[in-house]
């Protein structure tokens, strides 16, 4: 099986599709399988549907190259599943919300994630502990941290790439509980500063704070354009030179 390479440095890198195509591979770890994680629900915005399209295109392209692929979802309804099954029947589709994780196990994993984040806040002397946004993300949204950890333990994927802002945050919070060698890659498909200022949703308004707190844990960060990447660098506080 042809190895897939991704940028996996000690600090996250910004990767644009243009750069990835021009080099095809980058320096870093060889990957044998890839898992995509996103929240697929009916009635999404155009940007969300665009992220789903990007996920499907990525999975189909990697499958054609001979890589093992899987798609993690929180809802199995909609066009995404039908198209992926018809175009790539060998792809594994996992509904994290339909796992057999018990309520107690779910709460224990969530508590571990929250406590780990608070300990990390204390160790790094973080200026913004993001207590309320993290609590809402983990407990109020009932993040499927236990199901994701169990999937990683059982399947041991080389890399997980998440799509959309909330799955990005959940993946990086999970990384504080699951310390396996699976690379965690997040992708951002909108200009988050504009979304946060113009959107009345509380989740979108606090997303820049969550990004600043969580994105340093990512092994790589993918942006579809230089404009999105530059905005993300300002929001997250990460070095713009990390953008490639």
List keywords for this structure.
49% helix; 7-stranded parallel beta sheet; two-stranded antiparallel sheet; Rossmann fold; disordered N terminus; 244 residues; 10 helices; alpha/beta
Number of helices: 10
Give the averaged pLDDT, no decimals: 77
H/E topology pattern: EEHEEHEHEHHHEHEHHEH
Poorly predicted runs: 1-11, 13-32, 40-47
Shape: globular
Number of domains: 1
Q: Hey, roughly how much beta strand do the residues contain?
A: 5-15%
> Largest sheet at a glance?
7 strands, parallel
How many E strands? 9
| Name of the CATH class | Alpha Beta
Q: Helix amount, in percent?
A: 40-55%
Amino-to-carboxy terminus distance: 27 Å
The second-level CATH architecture is 3-Layer(aba) Sandwich
Task: Work out the radius of gyration.
Answer: 17 Å
**CATH-derived topology:** Rossmann fold
Brief account:
Helix 2 runs parallel beside helix 3, helix 4 packs antiparallel against helix 5 and helix 6 packs across helix 7. With 244 residues, this protein is of the alpha/beta class.
Descriptive account of the structure:
The chain is an alpha/beta fold and 244 residues long. The protein has a single domain (4-37, 48-218, 230-242), classed as Rossmann fold (3-Layer(aba) Sandwich), CATH 3.40.50. 49% of the residues lie in helices and 14% in strands. The chain has helices at residues 17-23, 46-64, 79-87, 103-124, 131-140, 145-155, 165-174, 192-198, 202-214, 226-236, and strands spanning 4-5, 14-15, 30-31, 33-37, 68-73, 92-95, 159-163, 183-187, 220-222. The protein is globular.
């Amino acid at each position: 099986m042809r190895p897939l390479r991704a940028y996996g440095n000690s600090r996250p890198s910004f990767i644009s599709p243009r750069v990835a195509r021009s080099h095809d591979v980058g320096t870093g770890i060889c990957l044998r399988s890839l898992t995509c994680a996103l929240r697929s629900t009916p009635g999404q915005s155009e940007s969300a549907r665009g992220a789903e399209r990007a996920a499907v295109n990525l999975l189909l392209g990697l499958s054609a190259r001979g890589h093992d692929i899987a798609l993690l979802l929180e809802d199995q309804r909609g066009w995404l599943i039908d198209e992926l099954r018809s175009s790539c029947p060998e792809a594994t589709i996992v509904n994290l919300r339909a796992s057999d994780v018990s309520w107690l196990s779910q709460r224990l994993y969530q508590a571990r994630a929250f406590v780990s984040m608070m300990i990390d806040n204390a160790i790094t002397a973080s200026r913004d502990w993001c207590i309320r946004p993290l609590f809402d993300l983990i407990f109020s949204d009932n993040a499927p941290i236990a199901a994701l950890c169990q999937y990683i333990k059982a399947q041991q994927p080389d890399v997980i790439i998440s799509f959309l802002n909330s799955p990005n945050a959940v993946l990086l919070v999970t990384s504080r509980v699951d310390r396996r060698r699976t690379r965690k890659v997040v992708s951002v498909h909108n200009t988050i500063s504009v979304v946060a200022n113009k959107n009345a949703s509380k989740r979108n308004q606090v997303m820049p704070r969550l990004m600043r707190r969580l994105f340093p844990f990512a092994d790589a960060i993918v942006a579809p354009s230089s404009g999105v990447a530059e905005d993300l660098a300002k929001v997250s506080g990460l070095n713009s030179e990390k953008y490639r």
